[in-house]
Design a protein that fits this description.
Layout (H helix, E strand, L loop, with lengths): L5 E6 L9 E7 L2 H25 L9 E5 L8 E8 L6 H17 L4 E5 L11 H14 L13 H4 L3 E6 L2 H29 L7 H15 L2 E5 L1 H6 L3 H7 L7 E7 L8 E6 L1 E5 L19 H15 L5 E11 L11 E3 L5 E3 L7 H12 L6 E6 L4 H6 L4 E5 L2 H14 L3 E3 L17 E2 L7 H10 L12 E5 L5 E2 L9 E2 L4 H12 L1
Parallel strand pairs: 1-6, 2-4, 2-5, 5-6, 9-11, 9-14, 10-11, 13-17, 14-18, 15-16
Antiparallel strand pairs: 3-4, 7-8, 8-11, 12-13, 15-18, 19-20
Helix pairs in contact: 2-3, 3-5, 5-9, 6-9, 8-10, 9-14, 10-13, 12-14
Bound molecules: ligand BES and zinc ion (ZN) (2 copies).
Length: 510
């Protein structure tokens, strides 16, 4: 759950660094590999021979091998991790390799793990800071497991508790330390989001989701305001109210504000879909995999995780977070197909299918967002199953009305490996969600489900003067939960959005 891993940086070398295990990263290119091995053999000849000859370790990406050092150096074990060929190296190579090293360390019950900062390929365009950040993220996030409900607790004891990155280069020390600090804080944000997504709907419902936001805000010095059902009614958030009608748990609207003294005048608004359980409502989903729908608040989780990290990192940008939160349940009092909603701001929508509830609650929040005179609004939502069909679990769909904003988000996606793929918003798609009796209908005819959902949202992004504010919509239905574990993501909640948004906001500040 919470990792509480201590991180540090030190100026030392392979011989003197004292830890339970020391990890060394190696490139695969034959000449470079040989040079690196020769260096290592100066200290640990028999051990390295065993690894390269018996285990035939060649530095391939994803490969790993370990040995006892027989205390020829200060650390007890050595772990060699392959990075692959230099011309293919990206930040993700370091993230993955660090995750593999840390996972191996965990299996070996290593408590204190040291990592030797790698020499960089010639002409490599990424900074030392970003590489250190990637190494830190990979190592830290690889240790996560959602084990809150597993008894008896033993998993926690096996995790590595201390991570050190060392270098003998004086000039890199500060940069590595900065990168590692970023990694540690951002990973905490990702883990907060993962925990929220993985928690069952009996634990995380609108009220408790709001309490998590309030607690985080108090702890890290940003502001959280929570509207109860009455306040939501007074403010005419009719989409949020309508979706909540079938549930015995009242809705909440959560407003987060982070306004640092050093911020420029720009304001970014982040909107997160906070459906704490999506049964489909009267248009009930089938029971297969319905339990996954506890994750329908992943957008909200990403927004809270991002606020926590942004405030701890003291990013110089004004942030507003808007989270409409409710369950979507069937009952005698539930919203029905055919109902018509008058949203905040006055636009109306016809409810064709109560399972297309995300857009109904986002409509109020997006219409409300204009009040903050935003430089840009970014919403994150597990909005459509169509995006899972189109992109699976390895890309988030991005749609919006501003190419520059979208390309900045895509660039942050490449860097963090929370990759995105843009879908078009041609006017013609709007026809699919035309209603005969209201301004718009909440379900389109067959085809392009992710696009028609975004076309619905687009209807609500108007400023007072009728112009659209700059907006991007991220459909994270496929990327918010993973169906299998990987190097630094586990099966279940991925915490997608936090690393991406922090990277995007970091560049926005400069
Ligand atoms: N929360 C779901 C989308 C979803 C599906 C998220 C699978 C994660 C995994 C959303 O509220 C929904 O049910 N969308 C419907 C819309 C349709 C009825 C127009 C969908 O995509 O099937
Ligand atoms: Zn739904
Ligand atoms: Zn939903």
């Amino acid at each position: 759950m919470e990792l509480n891993m201590k991180t540090s940086t030190s100026q030392s070398n392979l011989k003197t660094t004292k830890a339970d295990a020391v990890a060394v990263f190696l490139y695969e290119d034959k000449k470079i590999f040989e040079q690196q091995i020769t260096e290592l053999k100066k200290l640990l000849k028999p051990q390295i021979e065993k690894i390269t000859e018996l285990e035939s370790f060649k530095g391939k990406a994803g490969s790993v091998a370990s040995a006892y050092t027989d205390l020829r150096i200060a650390s007890t074990r050595i772990i060699l991790v392959g990075l692959g060929e230099q011309k293919k190296i990206t930040l993700e190579s370091y993230r993955k390799a660090a995750a593999i090293a840390a996972k191996t360390a965990k299996t070996l019950r290593v408590k204190k793990l040291a990592m030797m900062f790698p020499k960089l390929p010639g002409g490599f365009k990424e900074t030392v800071e970003d590489i250190a950040q990637s190494i830190g993220e990979g190592a830290i996030l690889s240790q996560y497991k959602f084990n809150k409900y597993i008894t008896p607790k033993k998993e926690d004891k096996d995790r590595i508790s201390e991570l050190t990155i060392f270098t003998d280069e004086d000039s890199s020390l500060k940069l590595i330390s900065n990168g590692l600090k970023f990694a540690s804080i951002i990973s905490d944000g990702v883990i907060l989001a993962r925990n929220l997504v993985n928690a069952p709907a009996s634990e995380i419902y609108p009220q408790t989701l709001a309490e998590v936001a309030i607690k985080s805000a108090k702890r890290y010095g940003y502001k959280a305001t929570v509207w109860n059902k009455n306040k939501i009614k007074q403010n005419k958030f009719a989409g949020l109210l309508a979706v909540s009608l079938g549930s015995i748990r009242p809705p909440r609207f959560i407003i987060l504000e982070y306004k640092p003294a050093n911020a420029k005048h720009d304001t970014i608004v982040l909107v997160g879909k906070g459906i704490t359980f999506d049964s489909g409502g009267i248009s009930l989903k089938s029971s297969a995999n319905m339990s996954d729908m506890k994750m329908d608040m992943s957008g909200a989780a990403a927004v809270i995780g991002t606020f926590e990290a942004a405030s701890r990192l003291k990013l110089a940008v004004n942030l507003i977070g808007l989270i409409p939160a409710t369950e979507n349940m069937p009952s005698g009092s539930a919203m029905k197909p055919g109902d018509i909603i008058t949203h905040y701001g006055g636009k109306t929508s016809e409810v064709d299918n109560t399972d297309a509830e995300g857009r109904l609650i986002l409509a109020d929040a997006l219409a409300y967002a204009h009040k903050y005179k935003p430089t840009a609004v970014i919403d994150l939502a597990t909005l459509t199953s169509a995006v899972v069909v189109a992109l699976g679990h390895h890309a988030t769909a991005v749609l919006g009305n501003d190419e520059e904003l979208i390309s900045k988000l895509k660039a942050a996606g490449e860097k963090t490996y929370e990759r995105m793929w843009q879908l078009p918003m041609f006017d013609e798609y709007a026809k699919q969600i035309k209603s005969d009796i209201a301004d718009i209908k909440n379900m389109g005819s067959r085809g392009a489900g992710t696009i028609t959902a975004a076309m619905f949202l687009k209807k609500f992004i108007k400023t007072k003067k009728g112009k659209e504010y700059k907006w991007a919509h991220l459909d994270i239905a496929g990327t918010a939960i993973m169906d299998e574990s990987n190097d630094y993501t586990q099966k279940g909640g991925s915490g997608v959005g936090v690393r991406l948004l922090i990277e995007f906001l970091k560049n926005f500040c400069i």
